[in-house]
Write a structure and sequence with these properties.
globular; 5 helices; 123 residues
């Protein structure tokens, strides 16, 4: 799928897109239980990965299918995710901490994928 965003700027664009989407979703007014901090880091990292697969505004049904699938995998739902997202977004320091941990999680996943790929190519 081609995109007008250069590959070097895609991670920043993806983070911006998800933050914008999160802000829109966060205004919906739903309430629910809060997702644990560790689980939220993993969920949000997965959400960023999903977001990177879709061009802005294209295939929203597929995006939300994927989102719901991720949330179900972690034993939660969109309402609880949105409520937890608002919890983090309401405090800039808490939000920054979450984003920093999500970035670290994504970097760890990338490094693990690279290590696995290197081991397979050397065999």
């Amino acid at each position: 799928m081609s995109s007008s965003v250069s590959p070097s700027r895609r991670p920043l664009w993806t983070i911006f897109s998800v933050m914008l989407l999160s802000g829109i979703i966060g205004c919906s007014g739903s309430t629910g239980n809060k997702i644990s901090h560790e689980t939220m880091v993993k969920i949000y990292a997965d959400v960023l990965i999903i977001s990177s697969e879709y061009e802005e505004g294209k295939e929203p049904d597929r995006y939300f299918e994927q989102l719901d699938s991720v949330l179900t995998m972690y034993g939660t739902n969109r309402e609880t995710f949105e409520s937890t997202l608002r919890y983090y977004q309401d405090d800039p320091f808490r939000w920054k901490e979450l984003i920093d941990l999500v970035i670290r999680d994504l970097e760890d996943r990338r490094d693990q994928a690279t290590d696995s790929s290197d081991k397979r190519s050397s065999s």
